[in-house]
Design brief:
By secondary structure, the chain is α/β, with parallel strands linked by helices. It is 32% helix and 25% strand. The protein has 14 helices and 24 strands. The chain has a four-stranded mixed β-sheet. Strands 2-15-17-16 form a four-stranded mixed β-sheet. The protein is elongated. It starts with a strand and ends with a strand. The structure holds uridine-diphosphate-N-acetylglucosamine (UD1). Uridine-diphosphate-N-acetylglucosamine (UD1) binds next to helix 1, helix 5 and helix 6.
């Protein structure tokens, strides 16, 4: 099993090019199931989760051609199966994103239940309830969600809580439904807007994406289009934190600064100097140690839960005491236990981690437990004294493209070992 070996202590400097957003690419790839013609998607990040989604589409009989490393041509005009099997769904919960499109276009979808997850229960009840409100009959049988509908109809849906993939699933279902669908308390994440822009490119009629109320007028068919995936705001934020923790100066290129406001505010509070262009962000820590910051995760535009572990790492070595409160997922502090093994002074009190910055973290073998937790551990390793070995990095490969290459280019001493 691959591991990352990091010799801490390097001050990061240089340019890093940001990849397409995983969390936009996945729903967009799922949404290609809605089109009767070929679609071409570019800036698709080369990640394990993307490979899983493409495999899932291929298993359904979709024709997938990878043109160059980052451009994918997809022909879903005909499919031979409407099933998402357990073998794939268990490796990636986001497989649930095929539920809405399959049902809307083909009238049937059998998607394996995702099951437990390292960061809490993560149910999909709101996805199912929304589809039922649109006229689907849904049963859970043999571990599968089995959904059927002749043609979905529009509905007025108010989400009990903000769910990103739930909003995306129902949005994808609504674009081919009969009549108007209103999604209230919808997720406002940039990846939802990116999906909506892609769907609009295929001929969907959508208003309000990016706000809490999305209104969709269903159409009969969707056609081919070309689309470029939004840059990854979490990858961007992770590299910026890496620079902040090592006292460095880096420039993130081909990113989308407007999607990172809450993170940039916290980096400024930590003492970073930021310069921001249309599609780049430069961070300069001028060799200083960061100040601790208080973080509270919440749906966009508030601070993203996917940046929480990285800021735990920052607080672990910062000046002062900072709190990190997680309000989206239960059980999302496994990285803290590993950071404690590196000498971090972090106490967990319910859903809050109280971090007292230490002068120095000490390298140790640590274990990645989920995608973003692993990113936090890599950052801790970059700042620690000595050699940190991060095990189970298949979690990182799910969401970070060539992380060791990009960090090496910034001057980090990091390599993949088997
Ligand atoms: C998405 C992101 C993930 C991010 C998360 C929160 C993708 C592929 N993944 O995950 O990286 O961490 O948003 O920003 O985009 N919930 C229910 N019932 C449901 C659905 C959700 O109770 O039917 C709860 C969840 O347990 C969680 C909260 O709602 O507590 C938010 O989850 P949700 O936004 O759905 O997360 P994902 O879409 O799975």
């Amino acid at each position: 099993m691959d591991k990352l070996l990091i010799e801490g202590g390097a001050t990061l400097s240089g340019d890093v090019t940001i990849s397409g957003a995983k969390n936009a690419a996945l729903p967009i790839l799922a949404a290609t199931l809605l089109a009767t013609e070929v679609v071409v998607i570019s800036n698709v990040p080369h990640l394990q989760d993307v490979t899983t989604m493409l495999s899932l589409l291929q298993m359904m009989g979709v024709q997938v051609t990878v043109d160059d490393r980052l451009t994918v041509e997809i022909d879903s005009s005909e499919i031979s199966s409407h099933e998402a099997p357990y073998e794939l769904v268990k490796t990636m919960r986001a497989s649930i994103l095929v539920l809405g499109p399959l049902l809307a276009r083909f009238g049937e979808a059998d998607v394996s239940l995702p099951g437990g997850c390292a960061i809490g229960a993560r149910p999909v009840n709101l996805h199912v309830a929304g589809l039922q409100a649109m006229g689907a009959s849904v049963v859970v049988e043999d571990g599968f969600i089995k959904a059927r509908a002749d043609r979905l109809h529009g509905a007025h849906i108010v989400f009990d809580l903000v769910t990103v993939t739930g909003t995306e699933n129902l949005l994808m279902a609504a674009v081919l439904a009969d009549g108007e669908t209103i999604l209230e308390n919808a997720a406002r994440e940039p990846e939802v807007s990116d999906l909506a822009d892609f769907l609009t490119g295929m001929g969907a009629q959508i208003k309000g994406a990016g706000s809490g109320t999305i209104i969709v007028q269903g159409v009969k068919t969707l056609v081919g289009t070309e689309y470029r995936v939004l840059p990854d705001r979490i990858e961007t934020g992770t590299y910026l934190v890496a620079a902040a923790m090592t006292g460095g100066r880096i420039k993130a290129l081909q990113c989308a600064p407007e999607t990172l406001e809450a993170v940039l505010v916290k980096l400024r509070e930590a003492g970073a100097l930021l310069e921001i262009g249309d599609d780049w962000i430069e961070i300069d820590m001028c060799g200083r140690r960061p100040q601790s910051v208080n973080i509270r995760t919440a749906p966009y535009p508030a601070f993203p839960t996917d940046m929480q572990a990285q800021f735990c790492a920052l607080n672990a070595i910062a000046q002062g005491v900072g709190t990190v409160t997680e309000t989206i997922f239960e059980n999302r502090f496994q990285h803290v236990l590993e950071m404690q093994r590196m000498g971090a002074d972090i106490l967990i009190d319910g859903n809050t981690a109280i971090c007292t910055g230490v002068d120095e973290l000490l390298a140790a073998p640590v274990m990645a437990t989920d995608l973003r937790a692993s990113a936090g551990l890599v950052l801790a390793g970059l700042a620690a004294k000595g050699e940190t070995l991060v095990d189970r990095i298949y979690h990182i490969d799910r969401g970070y493209e060539r992380i060791e290459e990009k960090l090496s280019q910034l001057g980090a001493s990091i390599r993949r070992v088997v």
